[in-house]
Write a structure and sequence with these properties.
By secondary structure, the protein is α/β, with parallel strands linked by helices. Among the domains are: 4-279, Rossmann fold (3-Layer(aba) Sandwich); 476-654, 2-Layer Sandwich (GMP Synthetase, Chain A, domain 3), CATH 3.30.300.30. It is built from 23 helices and 28 strands. It is globular. It starts with a helix and ends with a helix.
Length: 655
């Protein structure tokens, strides 16, 4: 990748860009689809764009140490702005583009951002709205100027104009950009990213150049990433995963970052690019699988039988073939036939034909979902990480991939398990501090650099692989002393295409109950095939046939959970299908789609009480937020259902 002589100088992301502009000068660095056409930029062109942007920022008065809010969907210009901000000694702070103005206001005020770089009119409007209460933003810059012509431009600028001003004044600004870029060290702040805030206000995680570059280097070498890789940048830019893949690893290895036209065209763009290196949280893989299952339900009987036949064979031998384990010649031949008839076309439809390495992380993925993709020959692996670790804590080496572990410690990472089962780590990727929060920094990272993850887990004897049980704060005990680990059951439930989300309750109780969210796309498709009319999510969620289907799924999961001697007490005794989808705008989930358990528990306390007191149904009223910011009240009578539970493996053995 690089010679030893040059490695010592690569102490910042702008330094990596300068290297790539020479070493990979004419290789494609970025692509963006706009108006249906892919546009490309080489590394040399990217370096020129970033330099012009940095000089334009100097013209606007950007100072060393300024914080710059960056808000929008994945676009090359926004990625370049991050590097240009760093080049002048300022600090980029990416925000979730789907955040409401109030959420953005907290982050912008907390970091004291002087500048906000926005993708389009929607993001500009949010910044203007927050300026009624937050007064630190002095300049708003924007990439897409559509709809912004009649705005007051006394403190607003089109990013293209800023670049042109930088180019025009290069004689004045070039030396200063060079000087500030040269001042950057391994310990300079590279980026500040905010946590998702599952338990409270988001915290600003300060990550240095050392954190990002050392992590990018080690993880790239672990999976033999090359400059020829293609990735699709579609995850939120405010999420550490996107930063490490689309900036850290991309700049270290020199591979190409592709930005889709929009969320609506993501699947089409994925097929057109055919990435070789792919990352997605479990929710994306779950949605893909749901789409496949919906299509197969709509397929003709012959095609459906062929799909079922070859998928059954894939589940039997696909993972073994992928891992290079012994498989009989007959099974290999049948698998090759399946590849031609089913697996190949299916991977092509999903845009996963060229995958060499794929990862999932963020939360645990259901083993059935994980095994489905590996059975197709897709090298899907799990990693375990955190924003505070610059992502990587553990990874799965090729040939040692399993659904029930998260792998071995990543290169350069130390992991230990505390007496209470909590996982601790330290590494070159360990964050510097929480911004303006010394108390939280001290409680999370000790003087020796060990970071408390908040997750409970253990190392397997023999393999050295880490198994994560659940969030330490979520793992508890049932009334009889048996373990309560909700994620384990929730992931099993979410394997079913018509279940989008599940939330389990039972800590300190004598049995478990569950909330279910149906997947509107999957269940809506089923309703259409069966001529079932409905006018809303709420109506479909309460349909007797839908409730019956969900009950079957819950009971199948109970039968599976009963086989686990450690967690068999987590079987679901009663459940309900919620009358609304859990929503980040209503505070029930984070922007990264993680359930805020405590908030859900408080908000729907009446429904939980009904599940435990045996009520057949409960009338409830719930405040909801509409897309335009208005509040409303949703009224519903929610049906409660009993589910069959099964004798545990230990009890059956005793009998």
């Amino acid at each position: 990748m690089t010679t030893n002589a040059t490695q010592g100088a690569l102490h910042s992301v702008p330094a990596l860009l300068a290297r790539n502009a020479v070493q990979f000068a004419n290789a494609t660095a970025y692509r963006e689809k706009e108006f249906g056409i892919w546009q490309s930029w080489t590394w040399k062109q990217v370096a020129e764009e970033v330099r012009a942007m940095a000089m334009g920022f100097l013209a606007l008065g950007m100072e060393r140490g300024d914080y710059v809010a960056i808000i929008g969907r994945n676009r090359p210009a926004l990625y370049w702005s991050m590097v240009a901000v760093q080049s002048v000694g300022a600090i980029p702070v990416a925000l979730y583009q789907d955040s409401v103005s109030e959420e953005m206001a907290y982050v912008v005020e907390h970091c004291g951002a002087r500048f906000a770089i926005c993708g389009d009119q929607e993001q500009v409007d949010k910044v203007i709205e927050m300026q009624e209460t937050v007064h630190c933003v002095e300049q708003i810059l924007y990439v897409d100027k559509r709809g912004l012509r009649k705005y007051d431009h006394s403190r607003m600028n089109w990013l293209h104009d800023v670049q042109e001003e930088g180019r025009a004044g290069h004689h004045r600004f070039e030396a200063e950009v060079n000087k500030r870029s040269a001042e950057l060290t391994y310990d300079s702040t590279c980026v500040m990213l905010y946590t998702s805030g599952t338990t409270g206000k988001p915290k600003g995680v300060v990550l240095s150049n050392r954190n990002i570059i050392e992590t990018a280097k080690a993880s790239s070498e672990f999976d033999h990433l090359r400059s020829s890789e293609e990735i699709l940048a579609y995850l939120p830019m405010a999420w550490v995963g996107d930063f490490i893949f689309s900036i850290g690893q991309a700049y270290w290895t020199g591979f190409c970052v592709n930005c889709p036209e929009s969320a609506a065209t993501m699947n089409t763009d994925l097929r057109e690019i055919g990435p070789t290196y792919f990352f997605a949280p479990p929710r994306v893989f779950e949605t893909m699988l749901t789409t496949v299952m919906i299509r197969m339900e709509d397929a003709g009987p012959t095609k459906k039988r062929m799909f079922d036949k070859y998928m059954a064979h894939a589940r039997k031998v696909g993972g073994a073939i992928l891992d290079g384990k012994p498989v009989s010649a007959g099974d290999r031949l049948k698998y090759r036939m399946g590849e031609a008839l089913v697996y190949g076309p299916l991977k092509n439809t999903l845009g996963l034909s060229n995958i060499r390495v794929a990862y999932t992380a963020g939360e645990a993925i259901g083993p059935e979902i994980f095994d489905f993709y590996r059975s197709l020959g897709i090298n899907l692996k799990q990693l375990y990480g955190q924003t505070e670790a610059s992502v990587f804590i553990t990874q799965q080496p090729d040939g040692e991939v399993r659904s029930d572990t998260v792998g071995v410690p990543s290169p350069g990472v130390e992991v230990r398990i505390a007496e209470n089962g909590e996982v601790f780590y330290r590494s070159p990727g360990t964050f510097v501090e929480y911004y303006k929060n010394a108390e939280s920094t001290a409680s999370t990272k000790d003087a020796e650099g060990w970071v408390a993850t908040g997750d409970a887990g253990f190392f397997e004897e023999g393999t050295g692989h880490l198994r994560i049980i659940d969030r330490a704060k979520d793992v508890g005990k049932m009334a009889d002393g048996s373990m309560f680990a909700p994620k384990y059951v929730e992931n099993k439930l979410k394997f079913y295409p018509d279940i989008l989300e599940a939330v389990l309750f039972g800590n300190g109780r004598d049995h478990c109950v569950a909330f279910i969210n149906i997947d509107l796309a999957a269940v809506g498709s089923w309703a259409e095939r069966n001529n079932i009319a409905y006018s809303s999510y709420q109506e479909l969620a309460g349909h007797p046939r839908v409730l019956g289907a969900i009950q079957e799924h819950v009971e199948e999961v109970n039968a599976s959970v009963a086989q686990d001697s450690m967690l068999s007490g987590c079987q679901v005794h009663r459940f309900l299908v919620l009358h609304k989808e859990l929503d980040a705008d209503d505070g029930e989930m984070t922007r990264t789609r993680k359930v805020r358990r405590r908030i859900v528990e408080e908000k729907f306390a009446d429904l939980i009480a009904g599940l435990y007191d045996g009520s057949p149904s409960v009338y409830t009223e719930t405040e909801v937020s509409y897309e335009d910011g208005r509040k409303g009240v949703l009224k519903a009578t929610v049906e409660m259902r009993d589910a069959k539970v099964f004798p545990t493996a230990a009890r059956m053995a005793a009998e």
